[in-house]
Every structure is written in structure tokens, then in C-alpha cells.
């Protein structure tokens, strides 16, 4: 049985930006935005996700793995080599930071599933997901915290500026960034517990507590997801994977499942739309994210920001030229974009969906 | 010579000073406790069942119904009911019957479960200010939907969705047949179901024509006696239920004696007046899960694919049985726990067979999830739902909705005296005696039942608000928001619930 776990709780700040023209910007930019929100974190976790950072390996899955014990590295590498062609292995470059005296061993792998391992009609992406699930739930002390193509997550226990300095974020250039600082109410002291959470090229940063966690988790387990991190955010990441990648829902429809319109609004729609939204709520009732949250999710083609159905957590968006910004606070946006063309607070449950221009 | 070695359970007493000899108690008592002695009311207290009808109708408050202080000697092993049953059996050689759900002191898991609430890290929600959604749909859900954008830019379904029963609150009325209860009692249920946007269930007694106006709020039942079943009946409601078993009497059939089959009941059941209505223990065309599948699909064919519910008693292997039922094509699995009520059952069966709804529900919900088919059918939990808190706990354990029977009857005056099988119910509920049923005015009593559903609706909204969620689907199966107190680790494991403090 898998119910006797301790759930992790946290308050947080988040920020993100996307250049619709795929213009790549340095990580120092997003770090500046995140570091402004000092009240939203307590130094117990921060992280960044960036897209477009590995152009020279863009066709390979970039696995970022943390090892609590260097000894498990060999076990994991054996698992990987058995099923993947490994193009490159390197330690993730870090700088010494006084506030971060200890850190797990951090290694990245650029890999591609071996063709002969994809038996039957197994999708490559499902194969990668199953590897991630397997390593994370079965190999003690090893944790794949990033598994997409041409993107990566960088996160750990520390405050936003220390984590940025540690991972040398200024050296990466991406067209889409999300970042997160946290205020855990219990102290996990575990690097894997920081945001962003990623699976394939989904990355999620999240502020809030998902009060429906228990049923969201059991729903995902029915589809083979193994929830190893005991945080709300993991649930959101897997739900997006299930609804969008596996069930083929469009992003707006998936958002309408995760933060569904109220029945009173659905009842007012005309027949076709009402039937569609009713069927959506019936089918995905257990996927409804209920409770206070704002979250950003990035994927290789865009950035989405969404609030819970009654907006119990802040989310502000702004636009300037080809860049859209979203953050917990307007000041975090103005820290890096002093004079946006437009600033607005998205309505409860109404997603802000930004895609790339090409 | 003694009349019975089983002493009367209750002492009906009249304060002779207060009594004005109006004889209302004589009129009101369905069990004939009172009679007129020329100058005073005579009392035959052996017949009293403590239904309290006389008490409420005495204008002078002259009546008192006491528990008989003369009891068998206290014995921690030989309980009162053990000795009493033996004495009754020694006198009659029969099987003592009973009504209502078991009243023995087995552990009540609902009372060992507590619900979570929000503090600081997540805000609670005020149901008076924010929308709070209880709407529930019963029926098969697809595992995914295909939605496309129409030419007008609006979303529309690419494939039609399976039929559903829409409920404004996740509470329905459990099946109670015309015959076991009076037509007026059924009318109370139907009126309240319509008003509250929920459903009642005909039970195995056919559908009286007076209920036809309520068909959008009725589930019709098909059970082993097949009373009143024809194609018109199958199509009369929003869904059809196949009754395999009942929590109060798993594995046994039913017997409505001929005295309780007057013309109207006979017509509705489509049997001759005054013949015993026998519901065999098994359905004689269902001896296996394949047979059930055939019946489910026969009914679907006959009804143009209305949802089909299958009602079973909670027994030891309920999880595997429920899984088979879902795979056989049922859209709804109705689980009736051993505390569930009955109009008549042998007390030995009622008190000793089956398992509680809490265990059964948790096991079934888990099993269907393990097998990846939880979406294929809705689960209704029944058998002892006493309050909105029980309902909330059942939903958190995994039920889509709960069914209430006894609670609904209590709004009609029932005091759970447990003597429904006699057909003398003084409240006009479980009787067909016209002078008794006439007292149950459907309009007056429907109002009371509607009040109950409204009260529970408000309470459920308060519970959701405290949990910081604004829709019932976020409570359904959300066992993380329950904690057990004083439960052993096995039980916690079966329920999938953490102990309080964790
Ligand atoms: S009306 Fe009920 S309580 Fe009163 S004497 Fe008859 S059985 Fe007893
Ligand atoms: S329905 Fe009537 S006979 Fe049955 S328990 Fe209630 S009051 Fe007693």
C-alpha cells in the first residue's frame, strides 16, 4: 500500500518568461527576477528550468541525475547503457558557493533509446517515462530530475541567488525560462524536492497546495505513474503529461480539465460546448486541481500560466516586444522588464497560453 | 400460566390522572397495544415496540414508554438478545424476524474516521461566498475524451459520451419496494427526489402509475422475483438496477406474505391478490458472471442503453465480485453494507452475514483502480449512512454517491423500532393497512425529507469549504483527507488511511 507517506508542503514564488521568437536570453536575467521575491522563499529550495540550452545535443534526451551516493552512479549507468545509446556523459558544471557546503553528485547524460528496445508499438516518450519512473522509484539515492530534449532543470537546497551561482545559470541561454523559490513548512533538506519538476520536456513551477492531492495521486497511479516525491507539483506535472501527451488533449482543453469552469458557467453554454465541457469534467473529475495554486508550465513550444478556480494564489502576466512574462508578483517582472507594454492579472482558472511564433 | 417467557421489552404506561380518555392512542397504535375497557384505556404492553406514535399523538402527554427494567440477569456473555431469541424460538420453533439494519455493537468505522481541515498553508473556503459544487453524475466514464474545435471556434465532442444520471447532490434514496413500504411512503421519496434533483429507486415491486410523473427521478429495479417487469417498466426510469443482494440479508431472498398483497400492490407487482410474493435467493437466470453479463446487455438492448446498476451485498470477496460486475458491463455498482436496512430479514442473517460498508467500499475502490477500470462504473455506498459526515467519509473512501433508506424513513416518523416485518407500522410507512398508510400525507412528509436533504447539502458544503476544496470530485477517493483514530494498522491499510497524527 502506498498511502502512508508524509506530504511536503510549501509556500512559494515563481517567475517565467518566453521569447515567442525563440530569442535566447541568459539565465542571469531570470535569476534577477526570482531573487527579488525574498519574502516568498526561505532559502530551502530554488531552481530553474531552461529551454533551448543544448542546441548541439538537441536530438538527445538530456537526463540530469542527482546521486546522493556516488556509489549508485554505476547502477544507474548500467540501467541506462542497457537501453540507451549514450552520446555524452559529463558532470553538471558548478561553482563553489559558501552557502552550499554540500551537494549531491550531479551528472548529465545525453541519450537516445536503443531502437531494438522499443518493441511493439511502444512510443519512445513512454519508454523514457518508464525509465524515469523506474530509476526514481526503485533505485535508492538516484533521482532523474530532468529528462527532456534541448532543455534542463537545475535545482537544489539554497536561496535563489546561491543556486543560480552554484549552477552557473548565467552561462546558459534559453528562449524559455521558469524559476522558483520556496518556503517549505517542513524541512525536507532534499535537493530533489525543489522545483521545477520535469518529465520529458514538461517543466512545472508551482505555488500553492493542492488540496485534491490524494485523489489526483490515486488517479495517476491508475495510469502507471509512480509518485515518488510526495509533493503537489509532481502531480501537476504528471497530469499534464497524461492529459496532453497521452490522451491528446489540446493545451486549452487540458487547462479546462485541471481548473474546470464551474457548473453554473457550463450550464450557460450552448449545447455543443456544454456537452463537451460536461464530458470533460466527468472524465477528468479526479484530475481537477483543487485548492490554492498558481503554476507555470513550460514545454518546448510554449509557456502556460494558470490559477486555481477562485484564484487563491497570485499570478501576474506582462508583455514587452516578443517576450511574455509571468510571475507571482508584478515587481518580479519589472525587475527585469521595467516598462512592459501590458500588465494584467489573469482571471481565476483562465489560463495564459503562449506559443512560439514558428 | 405465563404468556411468554420472553418478557415484554417495553412498558407502555398511561398517567391515569392526566388521561382524558380521548382514545387517540387506541386509534394510533398499529400494534393494538391499547383497547377500551369501558371506563379506562387497557394496555397490552407485550405488543409494544416503542415506535412512539401514541406518545406523540397523546394530547395530554399522559403516555410514557419505558424500557422494561425487568431484564434477564446481567451476563457479559449471554446477552439479552441471545436469551430472548432462544426463548422465542422455544415458543415458536421459527426463525425470529426483524426489520431495519443490525443494531449489534460491532465497530463502526465511520466513527473512527475524522476529516481534515485547512489551517494557514491553504485557505478554507466560505460556502456562503464562493460556489461549492456537489453535482455528481452516475454512470460509466470514458478514460479519455476527444474534443475538437468546431467551425464556430467553440469546443465540441468528437464522440458522444456514455449516458449518465445527473444528481444535484451525491445522495440517492435506496430501493424500497411498494409492498415493503406504502405507496404514500414511495410518493414521499419521489416528491423529494424530484425537488432535490436526485433519484429514488422502486425496489423490487414494480412501478405504481402514480409515480409515473416522477420518472426522471426514478431508477427501476429488477430482482429475482421479476415483479412488475415488462419493457415499459424497464424504460420508465432513468436507469435500471439489477438487484443481486441486500446488505441486511446477503444470500437470501425475500418473502412478502399474501396478507400484504392487496389489489394495488398485486397490480403493481403483476401477481394475483393475496398470493405470497416470493423473491428467490438467487436470480434463476444468473448463476455466474457470464449470466449477469447477458442480463445487463439484455436490459441495455431493451432500454436503448440506459445505465445499468448492479446492487450487491457487501460480502467477504466483494472486491473481486465488484470487479467482475464492472467487467460484465455494469455502469454502476451499488454496494450495500451489512448495516443496511430491511423490511424483513431473519435476525440471525441480518446480524451475522456480510461486512461493513466502510471495508467493502475501500476494497472495491482500490481493486477497480488497481485494475485500471475505476472509471468504468460509479460506486454507490449504502448500508448505514446516518449523517452527512458518514456521506463525506464514504465519498472520501471512494464512493461516487451514497444511498440512504433508514435516514429517509426517519423523516417520516420512523423511530427504527425494527418491527417493519409485521406490517403494522404505526407511522404508515412499512404497512399496507389503509387506516395506517392514510396518515402518511405525502406532501407534508416530503417537505420533511426535502429539509433533510437540504440540511445535509449545506453540511457537505461546509465540510468541503473547511477542506479548502470547492467541488465534490476533489473529495471523492481523496483518502489523504481522512485520518483514523484508534484503528489497527491492518484496518488502516485496508481503508488506505493514515492514523491521526501522521
Ligand atoms: S403506538 Fe407504538 S409506542 Fe405506543 S403503544 Fe403502540 S407500539 Fe407502543
Ligand atoms: S418503518 Fe415503522 S415499523 Fe419499521 S422501524 Fe420504522 S417505525 Fe418501526
Report the β-strand fraction of chain A as a percent range.
Answer: 25-35%
User: Which ions, cofactors or small ligands are bound in this entry?
Assistant: iron/sulfur cluster
Radius of gyration based on Cα positions of chain A: 19 Å
CATH architecture of chain A: 4-Layer Sandwich
Helix segment tally of chain B:
15
What's the rounded overall pLDDT mean of chain A? 91
Overview of the molecule:
The complex is a heterodimer of chains A (358) and B (502). Chain A is α+β, with helices and mostly antiparallel strands. Chain A has a single domain, classed as Glutamine Phosphoribosylpyrophosphate, subunit 1, domain 1 (4-Layer Sandwich), CATH 3.60.20.10. Helix content of chain A is 28%, strand content 29%. Chain A is globular and about 60 Å long. Chain A starts with 9 loop residues before the first strand and ends with a strand. With 502 residues, chain B is α/β, with parallel strands linked by helices. Chain B folds into two domains: 10-94, 2-Layer Sandwich (Alpha-Beta Plaits); 157-499, TIM Barrel (Alpha-Beta Barrel). Chain B has 15 helices and 23 strands. Chain B has helices at 24-28, 53-57, 80-92, 183-196, 231-234, 263-269, 289-302, 318-327, 347-352, 357-370, 388-397, 406-411, 434-437, 442-467, 489-495; strands at residues 10-14, 34-36, 41-43, 63-67, 97-98, 113-115, 136-138, 147-149, 155-157, 165-167, 171-173, 200-201, 218-222, 239-243, 254-256, 277-279, 308-313, 332-336, 345-346, 378-382, 401-404, 482-484, 498-499. Chain B has an eight-stranded parallel β-sheet. In chain B, helix 11 links the parallel strand 20 (378-382) and strand 21 (401-404). Chain B is globular, with a radius of gyration of 24 Å. The N and C termini of chain B lie far apart (63 Å). Chains A and B meet through helix 5 and helix 9 of A and strand 9 of B. Bound molecules: iron/sulfur cluster (SF4) (2 copies). One iron/sulfur cluster is lined by residues 51, 99-100, 409, 414-420, 425, 427, 429-430 of chain B.
Amino acid at each position: 500500500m502506498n498511502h502512508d507517506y508524509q506530504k511536503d508542503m510549501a509556500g512559494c514564488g515563481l517567475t517565467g518568461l518566453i521569447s515567442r521568437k525563440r530569442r535566447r536570453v541568459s539565465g542571469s536575467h531570470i535569476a534577477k527576477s526570482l531573487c527579488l521575491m525574498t519574502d516568498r522563499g526561505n532559502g530551502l529550495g530554488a531552481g530553474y528550468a531552461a529551454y533551448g540550452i543544448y542546441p548541439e545535443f538537441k536530438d538527445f534526451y538530456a537526463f540530469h541525475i542527482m546521486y546522493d551516493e556516488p556509489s549508485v552512479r554505476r547502477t544507474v549507468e548500467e540501467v541506462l547503457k542497457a537501453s540507451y545509446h549514450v552520446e555524452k556523459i559529463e558532470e553538471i558544471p558548478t561553482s563553489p558557493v559558501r552557502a552550499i557546503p554540500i551537494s549531491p553528485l550531479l551528472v548529465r547524460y545525453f541519450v537516445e533509446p536503443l531502437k531494438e528496445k522499443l518493441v511493439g508499438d511502444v512510443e519512445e516518450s513512454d519508454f523514457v517515462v518508464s525509465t524515469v519512473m523506474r530509476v526514481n522509484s526503485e533505485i535508492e539515492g538516484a533521482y532523474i530530475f530532468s529528462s527532456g530534449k534541448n532543455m534542463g532543470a537545475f535545482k537544489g537546497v539554497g536561496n535563489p541567488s546561491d543556486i543560480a551561482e552554484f549552477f552557473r545559470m548565467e552561462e546558459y541561454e534559453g528562449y524559455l525560462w521558469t524559476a522558483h523559490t520556496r518556503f517549505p513548512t517542513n524541512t525536507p533538506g532534499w535537493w530533489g524536492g525543489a522545483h521545477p519538476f520535469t518529465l520529458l520536456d514538461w517543466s512545472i513551477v508551482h505555488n500553492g497546495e493542492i488540496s485534491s492531492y490524494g485523489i489526483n495521486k490515486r488517479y495517476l497511479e491508475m495510469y502507471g505513474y509512480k509518485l515518488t516525491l510526495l509533493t503537489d507539483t509532481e502531480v501537476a506535472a504528471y497530469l499534464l503529461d497524461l492529459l496532453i501527451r497521452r490522451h491528446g488533449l489540446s493545451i486549452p482543453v487540458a487547462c479546462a480539465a485541471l481548473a474546470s469552469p464551474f457548473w453554473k458557467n457550463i450550464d450557460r453554454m450552448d449545447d455543443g460546448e456544454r456537452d463537451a465541457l460536461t464530458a470533460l469534467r466527468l472524465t477528468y473529475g479526479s484530475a481537477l486541481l483543487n485548492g490554492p495554486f498558481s503554476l507555470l508550465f513550460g514545454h518546448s513550444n510554449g509557456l502556460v500560466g494558470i490559477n486555481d478556480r477562485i484564484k487563491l494564489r497570485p499570478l501576474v502576466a506582462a508583455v514587452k516586444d516578443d517576450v511574455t512574462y509571468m510571475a507571482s508578483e508584478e515587481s518580479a517582472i519589472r525587475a527585469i522588464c521595467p516598462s512592459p507594454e501590458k500588465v494584467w492579472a489573469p482571471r481565476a482558472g483562465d489560463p495564459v497560453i503562449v506559443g512560439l511564433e514558428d | 400460566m405465563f404468556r411468554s417467557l420472553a418478557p415484554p421489552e417495553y412498558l407502555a404506561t398511561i398517567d391515569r390522572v392526566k388521561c382524558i380518555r380521548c382514545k387517540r392512542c387506541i386509534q394510533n397504535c398499529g400494534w393494538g397495544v391499547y383497547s377500551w375497557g369501558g371506563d379506562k384505556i387497557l394496555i397490552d404492553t407485550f405488543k409494544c415496540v416503542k415506535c412512539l406514535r401514541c406518545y406523540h399523538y397523546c394530547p395530554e402527554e399522559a403516555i410514557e414508554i419505558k424500557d422494561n427494567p425487568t431484564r434477564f440477569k446481567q451476563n457479559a456473555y449471554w446477552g439479552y438478545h441471545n436469551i430472548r431469541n432462544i426463548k422465542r424460538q422455544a415458543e415458536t420453533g421459527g426463525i425470529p424476524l426483524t426489520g431495519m439494519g443490525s443494531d449489534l455493537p460491532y465497530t463502526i468505522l465511520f466513527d473512527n474516521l475524522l476529516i481534515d481541515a485547512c489551517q494557514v498553508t491553504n485557505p478554507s473556503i466560505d460556502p456562503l461566498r464562493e460556489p461549492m459544487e456537489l453535482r455528481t453524475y452516475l454512470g460509466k466514464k470514458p478514460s479519455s475524451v476527444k474534443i475538437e474545435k468546431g467551425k464556430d471556434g467553440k469546443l465540441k465532442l468528437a464522440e458522444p459520451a456514455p449516458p449518465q444520471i445527473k444528481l444535484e447532490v451525491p445522495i440517492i434514496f435506496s430501493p424500497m419496494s411498494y409492498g415493503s413500504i406504502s405507496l404514500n411512503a414511495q410518493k414521499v421519496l419521489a416528491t423529494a427526489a424530484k425537488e432535490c434533483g436526485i433519484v429514488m429507486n422502486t425496489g423490487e415491486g414494480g412501478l405504481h402509475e402514480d409515480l409515473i410523473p416522477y420518472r426522471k427521478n426514478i431508477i427501476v429495479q429488477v430482482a429475482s422475483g421479476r415483479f412488475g417487469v415488462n419493457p415499459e417498466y424497464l424504460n420508465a426510469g432513468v436507469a435500471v438496477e439489477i438487484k443481486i443482494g441486500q446488505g441486511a440479508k446477503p444470500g437470501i431472498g425475500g418473502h412478502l406474505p399474501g396478507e400484504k398483497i392487496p389489489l394495488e400492490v398485486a397490480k403493481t407487482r403483476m401477481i394475483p391478490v393475496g398470493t405470497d410474493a416470493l423473491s428467490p435467493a438467487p436470480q434463476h437466470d444468473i448463476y455466474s458472471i457470464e449470466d449477469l453479463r447477458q442480463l445487463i446487455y439484455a436490459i441495455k438492448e431493451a432500454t436503448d442503453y440506459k445505465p445499468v446498476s448492479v446492487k450487491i451485498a457487501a460480502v467477504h470477496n466483494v472486491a473481486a465480485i465488484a470487479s467482475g460486475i464492472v467487467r460484465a458491463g455494469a455502469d454502476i455498482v451499488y454496494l450495500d453494507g451489512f448495516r443496511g436496512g430491511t423490511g424483513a430479514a431473519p435476525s440471525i442473517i441480518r446480524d451475522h452475514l456480510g461486512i461493513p460498508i466502510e471495508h467493502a467500499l475501500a476494497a472495491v475502490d482500490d481493486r477497480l483502480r488497481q485494475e485500471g477500470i475505476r472509471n468504468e462504473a460509479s460506486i454507490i455506498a449504502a448500508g448505514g449512512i446516518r449523517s452527512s459526515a458518514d456521506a463525506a467519509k464514504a465519498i472520501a473512501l471512494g464512493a461516487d454517491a451514497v444511498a440512504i433508506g433508514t435516514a429517509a424513513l426517519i423523516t417520516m416518523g420512523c423511530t427504527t423500532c425494527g418491527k417493519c416485518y409485521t406490517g403494522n407500522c404505526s407511522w404508515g410507512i412499512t404497512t399496507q393497512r389503509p387506516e395506517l398508510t392514510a396518515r402518511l400525507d405525502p406532501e407534508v412528509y416530503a417537505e420533511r425529507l426535502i429539509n433533510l436533504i437540504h440540511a445535509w447539502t449545506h453540511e457537505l458544503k461546509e465540510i468541503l469549504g473547511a477542506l479548502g476544496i470547492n467541488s465534490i470530485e476533489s473529495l471523492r477517493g481523496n483518502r489523504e483527507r481522512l485520518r483514523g483514530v484508534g484503528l489497527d494498522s491492518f484496518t488502516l491499510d485496508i481503508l488506505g488511511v493514515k492514523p491521526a497524527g501522521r
